[in-house]
Structure formats: C-alpha cells, structure tokens
C-alpha cells in the first residue's frame, strides 16, 4: 500500500457535533439569577429560613452554564474536542452552547484570496522565468484542516509555491510558431491545470480551490533583454515571410494578366527584370522612385 493510500485511510473526517441552542441556555442563566435573588431575600441572619444551599446552587449553575457559551458567525465552524478526542464540528450560526469541558477551535469557512510571491522557475526549455499566482481557496473539512496538518494556512502557502513550480516547468514560456501549449499563450488551460494540481495537493488538508490564475508571468531579468530581441527578430522574420508570400502572389497575378490580355510580350530576360523590379517595389521598406523610359523597351 502506498503512502498516499495510508494518508487517505488515516485522514480525519468532519462529523456534525451535538450542541444546544444558546438562547435556551440563557433562560437557564436567567433562572439561576432569579433563584439567587429569591434565596437572598430569604436569608435572615441567625434565623431558620436562611437558604444558603439555594444561593450556592444558583451560583454553581450560573458559573457552569456561562462557561459553555460560544458564538458562530455565518460561514464559521467550531471543532469540539473532549480531552483531545475530536467529537464533531458545529456549523450552526448564532449563540450556541456545549458542555464546559469541551474544547473549542473556530475555523473560518469563508473564501480566502491569496496572491503568492514572485518566484523564479525554469520553464520546459530551461529558460528562467518569474511567476506569481492568485488563488481563491476555502476550508471544506474542518477536521482535516485542524488535525491532519500542523498549520493549514502555512500549508496552503507552501503548496501554492510547489504547484506553480510544477506547472511552470511543464510548459515553455512562449512558442512563436503556436504549435505548443505555452504559459503565455494558453492562460485558461494552464490555469485549469494549476487548479487541479492545487486541489490534489490540498486535499489532505480538507481545502478546495475555487479559482486560480497567474498574476505575473515574465522572463527573468537576466535574460529578459535577450529574449526580447529574439522575439523582435522572430516577429521581423514572420512579417518578412508574409510580405514575400504576398509579393510573389501579386507578381504572379500581374504576369498572368499581362499575358492573358496580350498587353506585352516579354522574353525570359525581360520577364526576370520585371519580376525583380516588382519585388523591389513590393518588398522595399522605402518608397520607390519611378524611372521613365522614353526609348524602346530594350534600350
């Protein structure tokens, strides 16, 4: 049996705790106060009607009941323990009451938004990049969060960093040919994989991830300048390729139309010269200056 299987078998599981409505117990408190007041009025120094027993019992009841109150706000839970043994989690909001000897540990069930620190990661091609993630998480199992990890908030921080490193090393930062899944070009897909990775890692702590994504993604400073020049060069090459493909198509179309309409008959040498001139005009970065030929075509 693997370690993961053992962890799942030994994992804590949240159960509902047995507790009482705190407002009903307030009536018991009020009754003990009234009893104490009645006992006080019956006390006659040295007389047979002194109710010291009633006074003592009312004080004991007041002290006992007062020690068992606790209050829960919406989306809060309290884990109850008896001498270290987990007895359940109460999620009923409002004023609650349980036995005074029960231990109480409150846990927030609200969504938490966390933005991690920027960390340096090597992508699939070994390029150092900087990454930071934004994660929305919440506790779903209070027993696992409190008893299966030492500090579930610190555990979340550590696992977010580990998951970001794992996903960052799984894909390249960028691919100019758009043939691969990249960190920069496929945010939704990579963010989805990051969420699945985090949910798997945080499952042991009873925590789920509602949303996550990258808030910072860039090349590390030591290679940022070089990679920028590389991207610019690739962009120039791609633009030139598109320009040449368009120019060749236009030249081909011009020659076909001239031949089809019998505008002019060109031998191979003049056809090559026209192709050269058209390519210069279409592919040049500067405006061309026309030259008027006042003689014959071959002069």
From TrEMBL:
Q: What is this protein called?
A: SPFH domain-containing protein
Gene Ontology terms: cellular component: membrane
Signal sequence region: none
Give membrane topology per the record: Single-pass membrane protein
Parts of the chain that traverse the membrane: 20-40, 52-72
Q: Does the keyword Transmembrane helix apply?
A: yes
Major location (coarse): membrane
Q: Where in the cell is it found?
A: Membrane
Give every Band domain span: 67-235
Check the record and name the InterPro entries matching this protein: Band_7, Band_7/SPFH_dom_sf
Q: Name one Pfam family in it.
A: Band_7
> Can you name the source organism?
Sphingorhabdus wooponensis
Q: Which Gene3D superfamilies match?
A: Band 7 domain
Keyword Membrane present in the record's keywords: the answer is yes
Its organism's taxonomic lineage begins at:
Bacteria, Pseudomonadati, Pseudomonadota, Alphaproteobacteria, Sphingomonadales
